[in-house]
Specification:
By secondary structure, the protein is an alpha/beta fold. It has one domain: Alpha-Beta Barrel (TIM Barrel). It contains 16 helices and nine strands. Bound molecules: coproporphyrinogen I. Coproporphyrinogen I (1CP) binds next to β3.
């Protein structure tokens, strides 16, 4: 049967007059209904592990905007927690984790196959969503890429330059490489279960890929993504996979071919015309409007939406932002963007 879901058609290489659209962090604090459900859950992590409520917040932006894709509501830091790390969120600041700084800390973590009991509520969220989503909406499962997840596990928090992770990989490469291997293997098991539960596409978020250069980029961003995609595709033939090596710059070129990804998501530090000429030549790309425009709106939002649509119009494209929509975004601006895109 010919594929009817718009997002899957772009992932299969089809060029569409109106590209499919969804937004990173489309379920989130800019939406009053999200804030209400989060309050009902108690806190962010309780929301992630409450399958009914996590499915509810995933569905909220679909009801409000009719996006072409829904992304599972969860977080990339649930995997470290499933592996035995402590995880909590400091209000107004962000995530905090117990740190892995040496072989002793690493040895205390669980194995790749020990995560599923902890992750059972996440798989249940996926099952609920695959029943409840409209038939035209694609369900995206996701995980963090090993490097990005490792940066949080090593530093115990988000860091502007990922210095603690770079320090460990240069000073104790054996421990660092063993952590990367555990995360790569654990991510394969985690994503594979999401697919078994009903995720139709998977996305790998490497938010801090841009701080890896040259050989380190190949070894710690490209290679793990390639390994995860190859194993998932061998277990689930035909599974479309998206990769987001954020701020990879020139290293976006050839990334899809080298990793086997069906689509590369592009951040907004890259010019759309450059990405069309250099990255989209290999297949579908996703992106890449500046999330700030969802705050400021106006004619600039309309013009930018049309400019990006046009820049990517000669190849397969999924319209999205270059990073997540921010809590100060105006929900009305999403309608403005959709009107400019869909007409
Ligand atoms: O207060 C709240 O309600 C929490 C805010 C929030 C949300 C809505 C966090 C905390 N995580 C999420 C959900 C989330 N995170 C999703 C699913 C929802 C959707 O996209 O609609 C996804 C895909 C993520 C992925 C994620 N979490 C990434 C990769 C993408 C990116 O933004 O770069 C990263 C780096 C995280 C870690 C994280 N979780 C939350 C925060 C604030 C952060 C960033 C921490 C930092 O400052 O480094």
């Amino acid at each position: 049967m010919a594929e009817t879901k718009k997002l899957l058609r772009s992932l299969a290489g089809e060029i569409q007059d109106v590209p499919p659209v969804w937004l990173m962090r489309q379920a989130g604090r800019y939406l009053p209904e999200y804030r209400a459900t989060r309050a009902e859950a108690g806190d962010f992590l309780s929301l992630c592990y409450n399958s009914e409520l996590a499915a509810e917040v995933t569905l909220q932006p679909i009801r409000r905007y009719g996006f072409d894709a829904a992304i599972l509501f969860a977080d990339i830091l649930l995997l470290p927690q499933a592996l035995g790390a402590d995880l909590w969120f400091e209000t107004g600041e962000g995530p905090r984790l117990s740190t892995i700084t040496d072989a002793g800390g690493l040895a205390k973590l669980k194995g790749k196959d020990d995560i599923h009991e902890h992750m059972a509520p996440v798989y249940e969220t996926v099952r609920i969503l695959s029943r409840e989503l409209p038939s035209e909406t694609t369900l995206i499962g996701f995980a963090g890429a090993p490097w990005t997840v490792a940066t949080y596990m090593i530093a115990g928090r988000g860091t502007p330059d990922q210095a603690p992770a770079h320090k460990l990989r240069t000073e104790d490469q054996a421990t660092f490489d063993a952590l990367m291997d555990l995360l790569t293997e654990g991510t394969i098991e985690y994503l594979s279960k999401q697919v078994e539960a009903g995720a139709e596409v998977i996305k790998i978020f490497d938010s801090w890929a841009g701080s890896l250069k040259g050989e380190a980029f190949t070894k710690y961003a490209l290679e793990p993504t390639k390994k995860i995609i190859a194993e998932l595709k061998s277990r689930h033939p035909g599974l479309p996979c998206m990769a987001f090596p954020r701020e990879a710059g020139e290293q976006y070129i050839g990334f899809a071919k080298a990793t086997g990804a069906d689509c590369v998501a592009i951040d907004n530090s890259v010019d759309a015309d450059w990405a069309a000429a250099n990255v989209q030549v290999d297949g579908c790309v996703q992106g890449n409007m500046n999330p700030k425009l969802m705050v400021t709106g106006g004619q600039e939002l309309i013009d930018e939406t049309k400019r990006i649509k046009k820049a990517f119009s000669k190849g397969p494209h999924i319209f999205n932002l270059g990073h997540g929509i921010t809590p100060d975004a105006d929900p009305e601006n999403v309608h403005v963007m959709l009107e400019a895109l869909r007409g």
